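Inverse folding, one chain.
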């Protein structure tokens, strides 16, 4: 059974083919055009998706060495994300599904991230904890089984990826901020500035990153251009360390409270090497197993959408042609989206 996955929720245009749960191809076009604006411009993102999606789909079919007529189902991200960007993918998927006379399935992007770890670790066992850290979300999920998830923690304001992106803008680094801060931090001392680990009083597992970003802004505002330039690596290292320490602090609490011994990390921020190292250190401390997707499946990709689509299609799920993308799609009521 061949599933074609399509992902266009933000600034990556991606298509993938999965055969009986096994990945055959994953093609990703990253829209670097946004770098010059310092963030994703929604209208530009939609136009870029429109321009390249059919090429990316053809490439994915070619790399998988299958004909378009061999597709049994099309799964496509239908939220959360940017409305215009989602519409490009969903409408393309509907059109192709009609012309091939195959079903199509709307998939929640966040559920895709939860399952990115199965791409390279099909042996992954339930239940597991997933720290999902992307540009729009920072959550800890208890994944009991397929389609059975409990949210343990979420962010009260900015997401971790957003904290990286906003921090990079304050420091005058490029976009996306995560990789830029990571690069700059390599030659810095992470103990040179003390940024707070934010605590949410009403829920000890929840995250808050907006205070951290403000603390960085105040610190930078006290410096002139030359001082800032001299301190950039130390600031990047200390700021990155504060974000990672916060993530690790809450993850440790979740491990202690649930007693679950399998931990997965996913989402764009999971590409951060320092975060990966800190999470790996927990393996010994708690006698647990930690899984990360390879870098290319941390950031947005269609492989995770095709794989999640495969699991849903196996349960005989399909979406109606009336399906409208939802920019704020939540993880509740995932079936029959
Ligand atoms: O999952 P993703 O590709 O898109 C969303 O669904 O949001 O995540 C994008 C986020 C951006 O905020 C980006 O700065 C962050 O992931 N990111 C990183 C790294 N690579 C990407 N953050 C820290 N370190 C990285 N190496
Ligand atoms: Zn994502």
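Residues assigned per position:
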């Amino acid at each position: 059974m061949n599933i074609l996955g399509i992902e266009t929720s933000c600034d990556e245009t991606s298509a993938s083919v999965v055969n009986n749960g096994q990945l055959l191809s994953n093609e990703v076009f990253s829209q670097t055009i946004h770098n010059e604006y310092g963030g994703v411009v929604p209208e530009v993102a939609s136009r870029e998706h429109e321009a390249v999606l059919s090429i990316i789909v053809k490439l994915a079919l070619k790399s998988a060495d299958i004909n378009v007529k061999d597709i049994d189902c099309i799964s496509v991200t239908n939220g959360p994300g940017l409305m215009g960007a989602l519409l490009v993918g969903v409408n393309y998927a509907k059109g192709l599904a009609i012309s091939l006379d195959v079903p199509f399935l709307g998939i929640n992007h966040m559920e895709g991230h939860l399952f990115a770890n199965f791409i390279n670790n099909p042996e992954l066992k339930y239940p597991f904890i997933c720290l999902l850290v992307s540009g729009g979300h920072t959550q800890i999920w208890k994944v009991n089984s397929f389609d059975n998830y409990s949210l343990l923690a979420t962010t009260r304001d900015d997401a971790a990826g957003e904290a990286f992106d906003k921090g990079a803008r304050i420091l005058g680094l490029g976009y996306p901020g995560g990789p830029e801060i990571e690069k700059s931090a390599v030659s810095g001392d992470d103990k040179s500035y003390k940024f707070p680990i934010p605590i949410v009083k009403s829920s000890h597992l929840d995250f808050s990153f907006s205070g951290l970003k403000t603390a960085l802004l105040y610190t930078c505002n006290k410096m002139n251009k030359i001082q800032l330039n001299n301190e950039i690596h130390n600031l990047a290292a200390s700021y990155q360390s504060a974000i990672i320490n916060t993530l690790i602090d809450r993850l440790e609490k979740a491990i202690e409270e649930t007693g679950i011994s399998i931990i997965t990390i996913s989402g764009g921020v999971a590409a951060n090497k320092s975060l990966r190292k800190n999470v790996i250190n927990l393996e010994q401390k708690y006698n647990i197993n930690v899984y990360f997707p390879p870098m290319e499946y941390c950031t947005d990709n269609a492989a995770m959408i095709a794989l999640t689509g495969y699991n849903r299609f196996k349960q005989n799920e399909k979406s109606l042609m009336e399906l409208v993308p939802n920019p704020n799609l939540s993880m509740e009521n995932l079936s029959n989206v």
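The CA atoms of residues 172 and 238 lie 16 Å apart. The two ends are 21 Å apart (CA to CA).
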